[in-house]
Specification:
This protein is α+β, with helices and mostly antiparallel strands. It has four domains: about 100 residues; about 100 residues, Beta-Lactamase, CATH 3.30.450; about 80 residues, Helix Hairpins (Orthogonal Bundle); about 150 residues, 2-Layer Sandwich (Heat Shock Protein 90). It is about 50% helix and about 20% strand. It contains twelve helices and twelve strands. Strands 6, 7, 8, 9, 10, 11 and 12 form a seven-stranded mixed sheet that branches. A five-stranded antiparallel sheet has the order 2-1-5-4-3, sandwiched between helices. Strand 1 and strand 2 form a beta hairpin. Helix 2 runs antiparallel to helix 3, helix 2 packs parallel to helix 4 and helix 3 runs antiparallel to helix 4. The N and C termini lie far apart (about 85 Å). The C terminus is likely disordered.
């Protein structure tokens, strides 16, 4: 029945209320109530039953048998429709819960006071918290509430403002085990709660950063190809000229001693800067002189031991404490041993420079899903937050011009990515820096014996 027809019936019912409930007016009122009951049979079973009950009560007083029969029919139909709607509601709720429970993204409902009303099992897969750890928590009050869940809530409140629908926004946080994540969140504000969907886009962001780095590396390679020849020749001439000047000064006895001393000092500065420039050019050439990867199944623990033997015999210092933490029964990894060794040597040397010859260095291996992690941890000053995004850029260095050309980490990235490995930075738990090299595992366990 159309809305206009229902309005007319309700208006007529109001008119009949002012007339005596007997005779023809009473019977018309019964019929009007039954018509209104039927009008709501598809949309509102409760309203339908209310009108039918009123019709039955009045028809009984009037002994209006036809009205009584119709009213009983309307009541039976209302009960039937209520049962149908209840079953449909239960089915709909079960279907929604099934979809939510099987979703790979976090689905969460939070009221405006910060209480988590619902969160699906994906919260455990992504953040490491079981749903029962989170549901019912009032995140704005309880200190024991997971800090990262609080961060999502406050981000939602701040971003959603007066809008009913929140466009996608990203939030950086850490899971229960401290692993850094990036979540992409969308939300909708309902009458008394917020429903949000959070998707883990950490891997997508890593791939975007990897593509950006690859683009920068390619640009450096093109630049290197253009200038290497132009720079190397003048540098060689400068070194040979310096050597000739040294020989002339040494073979010229009439030259005053103080003049020789001053000349040798400035020749030394010249040679030092030429040598540094040659190293930068040599590093740049690494971007265009590609080496064919030799990828094979290798044991990471054995590889790390070889690196420590190479480094800490000539570089050993009583003020440097080195700890090797090797995971037992670690599967083999598919990697290029030379590329990984070069990257690890680079990271260890950076750590030693950061600690200025005094401190603690931890080299650790562990399995992490389908990857094997090699961590290089120092207790130096770490990397300032505002520089962490730039440390893998070519020609960027935190060591200063005298100590670093800014090519080691970017070359390490290129070497690792050539066979599917990667590298990332984290702040150390007690300060310092942690560089994590990730290499794909083979799934075959290595037997040390």
């Amino acid at each position: 029945m159309a809305a206009d027809d229902i309005t007319k019936l309700e208006k007529r019912l109001a008119e009949l209320e002012s007339k005596p409930g007997e005779g023809a007016a009473g019977k018309e009122k019964v019929e009007t109530l039954n018509k209104l009951a039927f009008a709501f049979h598809r949309s509102d079973s409760e309203k339908m039953k209310t009108y039918a009950d009123q019709a039955l009560s009045l028809a009984g007083k009037l002994d209006f048998k036809e009205g009584i029969a119709t009213s009983h029919l309307m009541i039976a139909l209302a009960r039937s429709m209520k049962s149908f709607y209840d079953k449909a509601l239960v089915s709909s709720e079960a279907q929604f819960r099934g979809l939510a429970e099987s979703a790979g993204d976090i689905i969460v409902s939070i009221d405006f006071e910060g209480t988590v009303l619902y969160v699906n099992p994906a919260v455990e897969d992504i953040l490491g918290y079981k749903p029962e750890e989170v549901i019912g928590l009032k995140l704005t009050e309880f200190e024991e509430s997971p800090a990262e869940i609080k961060k999502i809530y406050h981000g939602l409140l701040q971003a959603i403002n007066e809008e009913s629908h929140l466009s996608l926004f990203e939030i950086g946080l850490k899971d229960k085990n401290g692993r850094p994540l990036v979540l992409e969140i969308s939300a909708r504000k309902m009458s008394n709660f917020i429903t949000a969907i959070a998707r883990d886009v950490t891997e997508r962001k890593r791939m975007q950063q990897q593509l950006l780095r690859a683009s920068k590396l390619a640009s450096v390679g093109t630049l290197a190809a253009g200038i290497a020849h132009q720079v190397n020749n003048p540098l060689a001439i400068m070194l040979s000229t310096s050597a000739v000047l040294r020989d002339l000064l040494e073979s010229y006895p009439q030259a005053p001693d103080d003049l020789q001393e001053i000349a040798f000092k400035y020749l030394g500065i010249l040679e030092k800067q030429v040598d540094r420039t040659q190293k930068v050019v040599s590093g740049l050439m690494g971007f265009i002189q590609t080496r064919r990867s030799d990828v094979r199944s290798s044991n990471v623990n054995r590889l790390l031991k070889e690196v420590t033997r190479l480094l800490f015999q000539p570089l050993s210092s009583p003020d440097i404490e080195v700890e090797l933490v090797l995971a037992e029964n670690l599967p083999d990894a598919m990697l290029d041993p030379i590329a990984v060794q070069q990257a690890l040597v680079n990271l260890v040397q950076n750590a030693l420079d950061a600690m200025a010859g005094k401190g603690r260095l931890v080299l650790k291996t562990e399995a992490a899903g389908s990857m094997i992690n090699i961590s290089v941890m120092d207790n130096g000053p770490g990397v300032p937050p505002d520089l962490q995004e730039r440390i893998f850029e070519p020609l960027f260095s935190t060591k200063g011009a005298e100590k670093g050309a800014g090519l080691g980490l970017s070359l390490s990235v290129m070497l690792l990515e050539s066979f599917g490995g990667r590298i990332r930075y984290e702040d150390g738990p007690g300060g310092g820096a942690v560089f994590i090299v990730e290499v794909p595992e083979t799934g075959e366990e290595y037997n040390e014996s």
